[in-house]
Every structure is written in C-alpha cells, then in structure tokens.
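Service request form, structural biology core

Requester: graduate student, group of Dr. S.
Request type: structure prediction, single chain
Budget code: on file
Notes: please return the result as structure tokens.

Sequence provided:
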Amino acid sequence: MKLILVIIAVIFLVIIGKVFYIQVIEYDKLNKSASNLWSRNLPIKADRGIIYDRNGVVLADNVTTTSLVLIPNQIEDKEDTAKKLAEILGVTTEEMLEHANKKTSIERVHPEGRRLSYEVADKIKDLDLPGVYLVKESQRYYPFDTYMSHTLGFVGIDNQGLSGLELMYDDYLTGEDGAIKYYSDAKGNKLELSEVYEQPQSGMNITLTINHEIQESVERELDNAVTKFNPDQALAIVMDPNSGEILAMSSRPNYSPSNYTKYTTEKINRNLPIWATYEPGSTFKIITLAASLEEGTVDLAKDNYYDSGSIKVENATIHCWKHGGHGEETFMQVVENSCNPGFVVLGQRLGKNKLFSYINKFGFGTKTGIDLNGESTGIIFPLDKVGPVELATTAFGQGVSVTPIQQVTTVSAAVNGGILYKPYIVKSINEPETNTVIKETKKTVVRKVISEKTSEKVRDALEHVVAYGSGRTSYIEGYRVGGKTGTAQKVENGRYLDNNYILSFIGVMPANDPEVVVYVAIDNPKGVVQYGGVTVGPIAKNILTDCISALGIEKQEGGLVKKASYTDAKTAKVTDVTGMTVSEAKKALSKFNVDVEGSGDKVTYQSPEAGTTLEEGETIRIFTS
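Core staff response, request fulfilled:
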C-alpha cells in the first residue's frame, strides 16, 4: 500500500508539473497557436520610408490605395459574387470564380483587385457582400515623376525595391505590415467577437545629400540639351568636392518609375553617371597636369613649348585640334588651349611609371564605392602593356576608359587640396516617428593624392582655361570659375567612329576655394559643332549659375577677366539709372531691352543692379514710383 501511495503521489506530481508547464511556461506559445486556429488576419500594408533631399523636400512618398480581399468560406453565393465583382473590375466571371473557390483562408485578388480607384472601391463597398473585404494598401509615389529616376529607382506591385536606392536600401525602407484580426469558427464563419487592430509600422526614412534646387537645374538643362541636340545620351553630376557628397545626378534617356513596365530593361537599369564608360578626352588632362605639377616636371609660367600642329611618337603622328598648331606657347597656354602635343610632352617628362601611379592614386581603374548599385570600374592600360604611344595618348585622355563618377571624384581631389573622398548620396537613415538618426554617413578620406600647393596651381590653371582658353563659354561675370572641356571620339568594335563624339565639360566654382564641381557630358549631339566648349560649356554654366543661389555662393574679387573672342556676344555694364526719369533711363540703357514696371516717371529700383555685365539685348527691368 505504501508503494502504491508513493507511485500515485509521483504520478500526481508529474501531472501537476506538466499542467504548470503548459499553463505557465508554454502559455504564450500555445495561446498564440490556438488563437491562430480560429483567428484570421486582413492584411494592412505598411508605408515605405520616405526619401528626402538634404533640405526636407520629398522625393519619394506614399499614397494610400485600396485592394480587394476575399474570404472564400464566408462567401454565401459564389456565382453571384463572382459575377458582380467581375462586372466592376472588368474581368470574366470565370476569373473571379477561380479566386472565390480557392481553398485558402484569405485570397488576395491579384492583380485585377490591387490598387483600386476610389470609384471602383466605392462600387464594391456598396455591394455589401459577405466574404468580400477592402483593405488599405500603400503605393509608392514620385512627386517629380522622371526626376532622378535611375538614382531613386522604383518598386514592384508589392512595394519591394527593384532598382536604385529603392533596392539598395530596401531593408531599411520596407515597413512591417499590420492587420485587422477577426475570429471565425472551424468553417471560417466570422464570429461576433471584437476585432483586433494591429497597426502597421512604416519603414525608415532616408535623407539624401541631393540639393533639390540644383537637381531641378540639372533636370531642366538635360531636357533642354535633348530637345536642342537630340543626343544619343546625356548626363550630369554635381558634387561637393570637400566631402564627396552628390548634390545632383541625372541622365538621359530617363523613365517614369511609376510606369516602369513601359520601358526596356536597358533604359531602366543603366544609371549612366556611374555605369557608362568611355574615353574621357581632354578632361583627363587635369590628372596629367596635377601629376606634372606635383612631380615638378613643369613650370607653367616659365616653360615653353612650340606646337607645330602635331608630334611624332614612334610610328604614330598625334595631331593638335588646331590645324597648324598654336606655335610658341607657355605650358599654361598649353593647358588653356587644350593642346594635345603639349600634353604628350608632359606625359613623356613624367614617364609611364609616374603617370600611371598618379592615375591609380586618383582612383581610375577601380570603383569609387558610391552607395549605388551598378557601378563600373573603367579600363586602364596594364603597365606592362604601356609603350611610348600608349603613354602619349593616355596623357591627353585617349585609349583609357573611365566613368563619369570617377572623373568628378578625381577632379574634386585635384582642386580641394589633394584629398580623394569616397562619393556618397545617402546622408542619413531616420526613424519615422521621432526622426532619430539610425545611421549616418560621414565623409570618408580614401587617400591624400597631391599637396595643397599643387592643388592651388591646378585651380589657377583651370581658371585660366575658363578666362582665356577653351572654356570661355562657362565664364560667369563676378564669379571665379575654373574648368576643362573634353571632346572624345567614340569607339565601336575597336575602331574610332567618324563625326561621333562625347562632348564634356567639368567646372569648378569658386576656382580659388571650390564649393561645387559640375560635370556634364553629351553623347553625339546632332547639328552642332563637335567641341565641348561650344556645346556643353553653356549647359554647365547654367547649372553653375543655379548653384550660386542654391548654395549662397558670394562674388569673389581677384578673378581673371575673360579674354574676348570674335565668337563672343557683345557685352556691356549696366548703368545706375535709379533717380532718372524713365526716358533718361531708357537712353542710358540703350544697349539693352528695357521693361518698365509701374506708371510713375522716376526710377526707384532696377534689376539687375548697376555694374552687372550682361550681353547686349538682354532685358533689364526698371521700377517706377
């Protein structure tokens, strides 16, 4: 009897222990499992994180739409329900019956029931059919449509990132879906119990380094270039040279992210500023110049070179763009005139080991590491394959292949004091409710490439190019602008194409203390002189002009005065006409078009202000009392 009592006691203890384990230890798990057996969730899609520019302008947002969801077990008359829904959605009854007869607890009607218009959603709601539900769904919205399309990217129908920043940062941007939870019996019939609302959690917000005002300028100028020149492609990048921050980036052809299915994969995936590779042409000469100055192989002011129009290297004859050459010139004039034979001499003085060591230091031949997918590396000659001809052509930007982002990054290093920065476009990732910074990108120094003294000489040379040389079309009165033009012949199947060039310009402002670097490239413009200074220089000038107001760049004294050319439009200084009568003011401003605002006789204000240099024929507004 004692033994039996002990056994019974042990059994009771085991049972009590098991009950305690189930009721206390395993309670949450088992309760959740039980709840899942008799609860159903109507999904509520979470909003993606919002993408902002650096000043809080929304670049990618969300709009709320409605989607159709069916609970097949709750539909009383499937034939009638399918017929009525089919009429509203514009599909066949058979298609809707297929959804209504699915052996599932919840059926999302896809794709015909996704992202319904308010009108269609109201018609379905008015039917008040059992088992038919309308749930909230978030849809990506791009306020500026094609603006920055390759960089921002796009999302699929389920709000998943498929390209650009939307893909690169999808894990951060994607939120956590919510639901309306209701309870049903074993047959799926809805029970009269309280529903539970599980709120969706929006994704993280992202702030970019992009300056919306500058980006708008880039978009406008590229659109104008496409209209005017009908190029094969066009692109532009604007960078802060002192940090590597991308202030603007775009290319043509572009696309509408909201309607991405209408475009080819090639058009969608090719983000030209980081993907395209081509011979840089004369913009690459900045690297040869910087290396020569750093190594002390040239004195721009004292060293001279006689340009006869060509130079012979082994069995190759390399020509200057100017027939007959530039004659006797200093090496500063070699830079101003973008003289190929002169740069061949600079390359020869450096030698292949020195020149290619600087090309590598500046980052050519490797990815910059920008936080975007699809970046290319470009192609640089292996050193053991470099002979005298390859050395000569590389010195003036031919025979090598680079990307636009590499060019902007390296020129930034050449003018900012010699520091190569890693470019980036995402400034921070923020929690959506409190705006707390979750992750922040800091400027990253890759390496020191040249000295501050050399960088100062490069800046001075680039300012000479804009004031006296091939970059005069980008000169801005009162502001110190430096720059370099580029005209690169395109290659196809190993051969150079006739009359098919990529024209480019890279500009720096202010030249004495750079705040912005602008790069513009136009691929095969039609019906225009094939020179970078003529075609691309004015486009870059317009973007640089917009950067003045966007960044608050002030006028600088001590800059070089532009050397007039016979091709330049005539200019004149604006006279101070405040206090004059309208007739006196018109006479004083006879070289301009005068627009009078007001009905008084005395001039109280004028725009632009006195002392501004304008092209003759431009409009001046005068305001009267």
